[in-house]
Amino acid sequence: MINVMIADDQELIRESLKIVLEMNEDMRVTAMAASGREALELLAQTPVDIILMDIRMPELDGVLCTKAVKERYPEVRIIILTTFDDDDYVYSALKYGASGYLLKGGSVQDLANAIRVVVSGGNILNPDVTNKVVKLFSQMAQSPYVTEADLQGVSELTHTERSIAQLVGRGLSNKEISAALALSEGTVRNSLSTALSKLNLRDRTQLAIWAVQIGLSQMRGAK
Asked: Domains in the chain, start-ordered, CATH in brackets?
């Protein structure tokens, strides 16, 4: 059973999400919070597997709440619920450890599937938002945020690992990367794991951010 917390300052959204999620036999909503601060208070009393986190909440917004949750409860997964106007917030939430983001108003089935993917260790990057966030990351590629260490990481990767990182930065799935590079999905998974270890990154989302920040995802030549 997947235990879910819903953190959103709108009661209607909280109640609606609870109803649709509990239509799935493998899910139950065990906590609902109207603010980031309340979410942290509830976590101390009611352990959950995943939080559906709104970005804009009173007292403690979704970005800072994500940071606090991952510091105190690193095993708890977080999916950010976002709108097209939240690009800057989405970047920060991913940086602090969120496992992905979904647009509010998406299909019930997509949401349920996303929860299952994230709880099993995967990441979700909604294609409808990815292009806007990628543009933001690209703008940051030439900023002081990108350190010399970030750039040196490229040389530590093999050609295959670099190509895979490039395509992850473009939002491709393992299956799509497998087809693009003519590799087995097992090879893609293993190379991805090795690349994460070499770069000291936590997960696929951080690798995507890194690839975009240093400009790797925009380079030509991933074959």
From this structure: 2-136 (3.40.50.2300), 141-218 (1.10.10.10)
